[in-house]
Amino acid sequence: QKEVEQDPGPLSVPEGAIVSLNCTYSNSAFQYFMWYRQYSRKGPELLMYTYSSGNKEDGRFTAQVDKSSKYISLFIRDSQPSDSATYLCARNAGGTSYGKLTFGQGTILTVHP
Amino acid sequence: GAVVSQHPSWVICKSGTSVKIECRSLDFQATTMFWYRQFPKQSLMLMATSNEGSKATYEQGVEKDKFLINHASLTLSTLTVTSAHPEDSSFYICSANDRVRAEAFFGQGTRLTVV
Q1: Interface residue A102 vs chain B (CB under 8 A)
Q2: Do the Cβ atoms of A43 and B103 come within 8 Å?
Q3: Is the dihedral of CA B28, A105, B39, B36 positive or negative?
Q4: How many CB atoms lie within 10 A of CB B82?
Q5: Cα(A39)–Cα(B107) distance, rounded to whole angstroms?
C-alpha cells in the first residue's frame, strides 16, 4: 500500500464549478499534509498545508483533514481556467524535514471556459 | 517569496555522458536540499537528501554512484547524472529548506533527455 494515494483523474469541470480533490494516507502518525499545484513542466508550488484535523481556508481554496478516516481533501470554489494544473497532495517527515515529502500520484484538473 | 533557481531547465545529452544540474537558493540559506525525479504522468519521487558539508542520504533503490550529489555551500547543491542512459530521461526537481519560513521551495525543474 502506498503511503499517500490519490486518484489521478483526469478531472474536467466547467468554469465556476466547485472542485473536490482527495487523498488517503496509510500511516496515522503522519501529521503534516500539503497540497501543491504543478503546471506543466514546472516545479510544484505550495498551495496550503495543514497540521491537524479540520478545515483551513485561503481564498477560494479549502483544505480539510479527517484523521479518523485518514482522508485529506482540497476544495476549489469558483474554479477558473487558470486553475487547470496537476494537484498533488503530500505529507512530510515532520520536524525540520518539512522538505522531505511523499507525494500522491497527482490529479490532473482541467477547467474549461 | 523565496526563489529556488534550477539550471539548466532542459538538457539533451548522449548516452554515456554525464550531466550536472544546479540548484540554488537565491534569497535564503539552505542547509538541506532535496532532489526528486518525476517520470511522465507520474508523481515526484524523492531521490536523495542533500546536506551542506556532508554526504547525501539516498532513498532506497537510488544508485549513489550514478547520481552524485554535492552540497558545498549553503546556497548551492548539484546533482550529476553519470554515464547517463535513456532510462535516466526524466524531469529532475530540487527543493530547498528555508528554516526561517519553515517551508521548502521548489526549483522549476530540469528536463533531461538522453539519446
Answers
A1: yes
A2: no
A3: positive
A4: 15
A5: 13
Q: Is B57 on the interface with A (CB under 8 A)?
A: no
pLDDT band for position A98 (cuts 50, 70, 90): confident
Using alpha carbons only, what angle is made at residue A40 by residues A36 and A45, rounded to the nearest 5 degrees?
25
Query: For A88-97, A103-112, B10-19, B61-70, which range has the lowest pLDDT when averaged over its residues?
Result: A88-97
Question: How many CB atoms are closer than 10 A to CB A51?
Answer: 11
Question: Residue B102 pLDDT more than 80?
Answer: no
Cell numbers describing residue B82 = 553519470
What CA–CA distance (Å, rounded) separates B107 from A44? 8
- CB-CB under 8 Å, B106 with A44: yes
Q: Is the CB of A102 less than 8 angstroms away from the CB of B46?
A: yes
* Identity of the residue in A43, A46, A97 whose CB atom sits nearest the CB atom of B109: A43
Q: What is the pLDDT of residue B1?
A: 61
User: Which three three-digit cell numbers place residue B22?
Assistant: 544546479
Would the pLDDT of B2 be above 90?
no
State the pLDDT at residue B42: 86
Measured in angstroms, the CA of B44 and the nearest CA of chain A are apart by: 6
Which residue in A41, A96, A99 is closest to B34 by CB distance? A99
Contact B43, A104 (CB under 8 A): yes
How far B64 CA sits from the closest chain A CA (Å)? 18
